[in-house]
Amino acid sequence: MEPAQEQSPPHAYPAHWEADVVLRDGGTARIRPITTDDAERLVSFYEQVSDESKYYRFFAPYPRLSDRDVHRFTHHDYVDRVGLAVTVGGEFIATVRYDRIDERGRPASAPADEAEVAFLVQDAHQGRGVASALLEHIAAVARERGIRRFAAEVLPANTKMIKVFRDAGYTQRRSFEDGSVHLTLDLEPTEESLAVQRGREHRAEARSVQRLLAPRSVAVIGVGRTPGGVGRTVLRNVLAAGFTGRTYAVNNAFAAGQETIDGVPAHRSLGGIGEPVDLAVVAVPADRVPEAVADCGEHGVQGLVVLSAGYAEWGAEGRDRQRELVRQARSYGMRIIGPNAFGLINTAEPVRLNASLAPEPPARGRIGLFTQSGAIGIALLSGLYRRGAGLSTFISAGNRADISGNDFLQYWYEDPDTDVALLYLESIGNPRKFTRLARRTAAVKPVVVVKGARHSGSTPPGHAVPTRRIPDATVSALMRQAGVIRVDTVTEMVDAGLLLADQPLPAGPRVMILGNSESLGLLTYDACLAEGLRPRLPLDLTTAATPQDFRNALTEALADDGCDAVIVTAIPWVGEDGQAEAGDGEVLAEALRAAAATGPAKPVAVVHVEIGGLAKALAAASGTVARPSAPRTAPADQRDPQTPPPQESGAPGRIPAYPAAERAVRALAEAVRYAQWRRQSAVPGKVPEFLDDTIDGPGTAQLIDTLLGPDPDPRGRQLGTEEARELLAGYGITVRPTLPAPGPDAAVAAAARLGYPVALKTTAPHLRHRADLGGVRLDLADEDALRRAYGELTGLLGGPAELQPVVQSMAPRGVDTVVRATIDPAAGAVLSFGLAGAPSELLGDTAHRLVPATDRDAAELIRSIRAAPVLFGWRGAAPVDTAALEELLLRVSRLVDDHPEVVSVALEPVVVATRGLTVLGASVRLSPPPARTDLGPRRLPNY
C-alpha cells in the first residue's frame, strides 16, 4: 500500500464530524477527525497495536511508523483524504482512513466517487464494536464528500474485519484477488443497513444503562463526616437496601487514619480503594465535580450519578459547566445520570441497589419508573409505596444531560423484570427517536407518559431541546399513534400503571359494573360512557350484599362472554348499631381475589368509598410485586441496624383499588385503547401498490431541483399557483385550475373558458379560505350573475388589486375538508386532516399522524376527528367517498416522505363528494432538505 499523493489543498476542520458514541459494551468513546497535532498520539497508539494487527493492516511486517507515514496519516484535506480516530481519555484506540481513487485505483479528486478505506483497532479494544461505529461515521463523511463506494483489501485471515464489512448491511460485492479479499461497498443507506445500525444502537445503549443499574461496586463521593447531608444519606440508603456488591465511601476530608464510616471502607480518593469501582455517586459541590470526575475516569469507573446542583438550571454559566461535565465524563468512556439528579434504584434480587435520596424505598416489582424531576420522583415513589406497588427500576435524571428516557426505553424493551414503563418527561431531546423507541417498546409492554412543561417557552432551564413548532395536542396524537399511553397527571399515570401491571389487557370495551351502591354504580356507568366504553347497566347487589354475594356476582360477570372487563363498586356495610362492621374490607378483598383467580383472564378494578382496610388488603397481594426469594438484608458488616430493609409481598392476585369512579374508569379506558392498538399493530398497515403506477418520483425530484435552483435560499420559497399544481400532479394530485379576474370582463372571459357554473373568490391572504367573511360567491350560472357578484364583492371588500379575484369552475357538492403536511424540525413529517372552516379551527378538531402513513393510518386519520360523523352520513346525509380521501392522504404522505425538500403542503379546501373529491386550492413550500439526524450514524446528543 503505497502512500497516496496529496491531491487538493486542505479544507477547514470539519467540527460537525465529531461525535460521542456508545460502544457494544456500554462504554462511550469519541470519534473525531485526525489533525496535524495528533502525531504523538498516533505513534503511541501504533506502538500498542500487536504485530498481527499491523500485518493485517499493511499486509507485511510493519513494526513502526516512519516519519513519512506519520505525516501522511495526520495530514488530510478532509475531502479526498480523510482520517478519523476513536479516542478514550484523549488517546487513540482506533483509526480509519479513506483515500479517493479513480477507476484504476490511483489517487484522484472529485468527480471520482470511489475511495479505498482501511481500519486499525487497538487489540485491547477489539470486540467492543469500535470498527462498526467507525464504518458508520466514515461512510457518512464519504457520502457528504460525494463518494458513493468504498473499496477495501482484506487478508482472508482477518475474519473480524471481513465480518465488520459483511454485517454492515450495505450492498456489497466480494472477490478474491492476489491472495486478498477485495470488497466493494455501496454507501447508500439501505433498509438493512439502517436496521443494523439501530439494532447496534439498541444493544449498546441498553448495555450502558445496565452498567449503571447493576454495578458490582459503588463508591459514594462526598460522604459527610457527620450524620446528614446528601452523600451520607445516599450511603445509608445503599446499605439499607442490602446492596449485594461492594460499597465505598470517599471524601478527601477524611482523617488520614479513618478506615470506615457507617461500617463501610472510607477513602480519601478512588485511588486509595485499590479495587475496580463500577458506579460512582457524586455528591460534592459543583466546583469540585471536575476533580471527582477525573479521579473516576483515571480509575476505570464505568458510570456516574451526579446529584450535585449548580448546572444548566442556574443559567448560562451553569449550562457551560454542564456541557463540560458531559464532555469530561464521555472522554473517559463514562455515562452520566444527572446532574441535579435524585438517583437510581434497582430492586432486582441479585443487585438490591438504592443509590438515591428516596425516603421510602419501593418494594421489588414489575414497574419501571423514569422521571426528570426529583420532586415528582418523590411524589411518585410515595404514591406507589402507599398503594403497595413494587418497582423494578427507578431513575430520576435531573437535567438529563446524558442519560435520558430514550436510553431507558432501550433497556426496558428487553428487561424481563419490567412489565410496564412509566415516564415523567419535562422535555424530549430527540422526539423522532423517542417515537420510534416508544412504538417498539409499546408493542411488547405498556408505556405510560406524563409530559410536563407542555406550553411553549416553559421548558425547564436545565434542559436544552430542539425547537418544535407543532402544538402539544399534535405531540399527544403522535404519541398515541406510537402506542404511548399519554395521561395528564402523575396520579393518572399511577392509576393506569397499576391496572396495566396487575391485570390482563381487555379484549374490548364492554364493561360490567356491579356493586352494593346504585348511585356509585350510576356514576361509574356515566364515566364509562364519557370515556367511550360500552358499559352495561349496573348490577345493584343492594346494601345488604355480603362478600360472598360479591364473589358470586364477580365470578358470573367474568364468565360472561359479552363482558371484557369488570368494575366493582363498594360502600361500607353498616351494622344494626349503625357502625361499620370490623374487618369487612379484608373479607371483601379475599372474596374478590378468589373470584378473579378462578375466572377467565379479564381486568377487574374496584371503586370503593371509605371501606376500612379494603385498599390495603387488595394491595397486599400484588401482581406488581415480585415473589420473594431471599431476605433483603445488607451484608452484616454494612447493614444499618436502625433501618430495616424494604419488605416485599409475593402473593398473587392484586386488584387495583380507586377512591373515585372516574379514576378507575379512566385507567380502564386507557387499557382498552392500548389493547386495541396492540392488536392492530400486530398486523401493520401498508401503502397500496397501485400508487406506484401513478407517481412520477424521478420527474418530481427533477422539478424540485429546478424550482429550488442551483443556490437555494436556506429559508425556502413558496411556490406559485401553477408551480404547485405541476408539482402535485407528479403524485397524482389534481388541483382544479383557477384563472385570474382583475376585472369584470376578465372574469367573464375566464368563465367562458372554464364553463358555467363557476365560483368567484378572492385570493388575498387576509381573506383566503374565509367564506365567512363573504370572499366567495358560488354557483354563478351565467354572465349576469358573475358580473353582479363581481360588483358586490369589490364593493363590499375592496378593489380588485387588493382582493386578487379568481374564477374557478364549480365542483360537485360535498364536505369541505383540509389536508396538510408539514416538516417539524423535532418531530419530523406530520400529516394532518380536519374539516374546513372556523369551527374546526376554533375547537382544534384536527387529527395528525407521522409520515410515512399507511392505509390504516389514513383510515384512522379521517375517523379520529370529532366531526367525523359528517363524513359518514350524519343526520341522513349521503356518506361521502372516504376511500378517495384516504388515497389523497396517502399521496400527500408519499410526496413529503419521498422528497424532504417539500416542507409544507396545504390542500384547502378539498371537497369530498359522494363519488370522488376535488382539490380546489393548494399551497406548497420548498426548502433545502433539513438535516435528518435519525438517519445518520449513531451519536449521542450534545445539549
Can you tell me about this structure?
The protein is an alpha/beta fold. Helix content is 34%, strand content 22%. The chain has 27 helices and 39 strands. The strands form six sheets. Strands 1-2-3-4-5-6-8-7 form an eight-stranded mixed sheet, with helices on both faces. A hairpin with a 2-residue loop joins strand 11 and strand 12. Helix 11 packs parallel to helix 12, helix 14 crosses helix 19 and helix 26 crosses helix 27. The radius of gyration is 33 Å and the shape is flat. The N terminus is likely disordered.
Spell out the key features of this protein.
943 residues, alpha/beta, 34% helix
Write the layout of secondary structure elements.
Layout: E1 19-22, E2 28-33, H1 39-47, H2 51-58, H3 67-74, E3 81-88, E4 91-101, E5 114-121, H4 130-144, E6 149-154, H5 159-166, E7 172-177, E8 180-186, H6 191-213, E9 217-221, H7 230-241, E10 246-250, E11 260-261, E12 264-267, E13 279-282, H8 289-298, E14 303-306, H9 316-331, E15 335-337, E16 343-346, E17 353-356, E18 363-371, H10 374-386, E19 390-396, H11 405-414, E20 420-425, H12 431-442, E21 447-451, H13 472-481, E22 485-487, H14 490-502, E23 510-515, H15 518-530, E24 534-535, E25 539-540, H16 547-559, E26 565-570, H17 584-598, E27 604-608, H18 614-620, E28 657-658, H19 661-681, H20 697-708, E29 717-718, H21 721-729, E30 739-740, H22 744-754, E31 758-762, E32 776-780, H23 783-797, H24 800-803, E33 805-809, E34 815-824, E35 828-835, H25 838-843, E36 846-850, H26 855-863, H27 882-898, E37 902-912, E38 917-919, E39 922-926
Parallel strand pairs: 5-6, 9-10, 9-13, 10-12, 13-14, 14-15, 18-19, 18-20, 20-21, 21-22, 23-24, 23-25, 23-26, 26-27, 27-28
Antiparallel strand pairs: 1-2, 2-3, 3-4, 4-5, 6-8, 7-8, 11-12, 16-17, 16-19, 29-39, 30-33, 31-32, 31-33, 34-35, 34-37, 35-36, 37-38, 37-39
Helix pairs in contact: 6-11, 8-9, 11-12, 14-19, 15-19, 16-17, 17-18, 22-23, 26-27
